[in-house]
Amino acid sequence: MIKLIFLIFTLFFLSNCSISETARIWDNKDEKTDNQKNIKKPFAKEKKIITEFNPELKIDLSKIEINSYTIDNQNNYGSQNYSGFNDKIGSYKFSKIEDANQLNYKPIFLNDGLIFFDKKGTITRYDKNSKVIWKKNHYSKSERKLSPKLYLALDDQNLFVTDSIAKYYSINIKTGELNWLNNGNYSFNSDVKKRGNKFFVIDYKNTLRSFSGYDGSELWNFQTEGSFAMSDSKNSLIIVGDLVIFNNSIGDITAVNIETGLISWQLPTQSTNIINESYNFKTSKLVSDGKSIYFSNNKAEFYSVDIKTGLTNWINEVNSNIMPTIIGNLIFTVSDNGYLFVLEKNNGNIIRVTNLYNIYKEKKRPYIKPIGFVIGKTNLYLTNSDGKMIVADLITGNTVNIVKVSSNLMSEPFIFNKNLFVIKNGSVVQYN
Predict the structure, then answer these.
(1) Given strand 427-431, what is the order of strands in its sheet?
(2) pTM
(3) What is the DSSP letter of 65?
(4) One digit per residue, pLDDT tens: the chain, 432 residues?
(5) Strand, coil or helix: 36
(6) Is 75 helix (H, G, I), strand (E, B) or coil?
(7) d(Cα 357, Cα 115) in Å, to the nearest integer?
(8) Which strands sit side by side in the sheet containing 379-384, from one edge to the other?
(9) d(Cα 127, Cα 130) in Å, to the nearest integer?
(10) Separation in Å, CA 343 to CA 11, 59, 314, 368
């Protein structure tokens, strides 16, 4: 009976207590409500831009150093040595692609051709005339049915491959024959980056793994927080100095030492309730200028983060999940609704916004999404979900050409050796 009375008294006490300002044991109801109001809901309705900004501003890149190559380890493709847009001059054909996500993968470009894969994991090396040099498949019949998607990296003599079914291997670039093959614990979900005799990749469990290029043995790994659902977007990593910097599916940016895998810093960019929404969460690839990294997401956040400290330099409101490009002190990106943004790298100020989708009828615009872009000497080349490529003049922002590339989805464009390439269903198309 005494115990019953004590229990009733305790329950009465708890139900009538408010927070003790000194002890801070319980939350005040009013204060909790105010805090909840300040929590930013994930995937809040996008703030649509309805007007262009500073359209008369001329963007002249002629005085900025032009890169003739891609800085692959830092994902910053810069301004490429390509001008104009002429007719198709070549087509590197492979089997039809059933999964549109395969178009999100990058070919390996060589001075005398390129390397790509088909829906069964067959890797083909082509010469510059689109002729097959070798064609190899290192999967069993059952594995081929899984349609493995491949991530490729290259050194002077070998191609390093990771895939979506947890295999990774190395093949001879001249013959296509296996050097070694290993099985991982989880499927891989990022591009491969190589430095010296090591290569790096992220798996679906948000774990960064370092492997030896000699035999594929694992050197170290670093695991970050996972999510309840697999994201349908790839993770991104870059190598800058002695750091490997990467993102996971819930928005954490992590920097680890390239030799030891020990953490240098970590920057969470999302609230904890993003975990349940991770399947819909999309970020751009990380890009770097050697001092800072830059990326954006579909929550209308564009970040600049200091590489040494992991501290945020600035954040601006740009809704985009495609890879930006840095040229000099300028950053170029395209928003989810087809606006070309030009930002100042040092402070994040937006200096010009141009509507690239004004070529479409207004009712069609919401159904068309940008896939990716690349910048040539004077033009920007943007591929879109309707199979068309928009060619825009960088100086004015005006559209100068529209090219029908595919009836279905296609990849982002790539520039190599003064040629432009686009992957579509069944082939890599080359333009001169």
Answers:
(1) 88-93, 427-431, 419-424, 414-416
(2) 0.86
(3) P
(4) 554 444 444 444 444 443 333 333 334 434 433 433 333 444 444 455 567 899 889 988 877 766 655 678 999 988 888 887 777 888 999 877 666 666 788 899 999 999 999 989 999 999 999 999 999 999 999 999 999 999 999 998 999 999 999 999 999 999 999 999 999 989 999 999 999 999 999 999 999 999 999 999 999 999 997 655 555 678 999 999 999 999 988 889 999 999 999 999 999 887 555 555 555 778 899 999 999 999 998 889 999 999 999 999 999 999 999 999 999 999 999 999 999 999 999 999 999 999 999 999 989 999 999 999 999 988 999 999 999 999 999 999 999 999 999 887 889 999 998 899 999 888 999 998
(5) helix
(6) coil
(7) 33
(8) 370-375, 379-384, 388-393, 399-404
(9) 5
(10) 58, 11, 12, 23
Place of tokens 């000099």: 328
Closest among 358, 403, 408 to 382, alpha carbons compared: 403
- Cβ(306)–Cβ(288) below 8 Å: no
Among 352, 369, 351, which Cα is nearest to 360's? 369
The residue whose two tokens read 């300028």 is 330
Rounded Cα distance between 431 and 242, Å, is 37
What the block records as the tokens of 236 is 């991104």
Residue entry with tokens 């659902």:
229
- Whole-number Å distance between alpha carbons of 207 and 192: 13
Element (H, E) at 10: helix 2-16
Contact present, 55 and 352 (Cβ < 8 Å): yes
The DSSP symbol for 319 reads B
DSSP result, 117-165: E-TT--EEEEETTS-EEEEE--S-HHHHTT---EEEEE-SSEEEEEETT
Integer Cα distance of 160 and 198 in angstroms: 10
Spatial CB neighbours of 69, under 8 Å, sequence gap ≥ 6? none
Nearest C-alpha neighbor of 123 from the set 88, 89, 90, 167:
167
Please give the structure tokens belonging to residue 381: 């080349």
Single-letter code of the amino acid located at 65: E
The pair phi, psi for residue 398, each rounded to 5°, is -75, 145
Which of 336, 323, 402, 397 shows the shortest CA–CA distance to 369?
336
User: If we measure between CA atoms, which residue out of 371, 334, 337 comes closest to residue 106?
Assistant: 371
Residue 276 tokens read as: 């349940």
State the Cα–Cα distance between residues 356 and 361, nearest whole angstrom.
Answer: 12
Nearest to 234 by CA among 270, 187, 275: 187
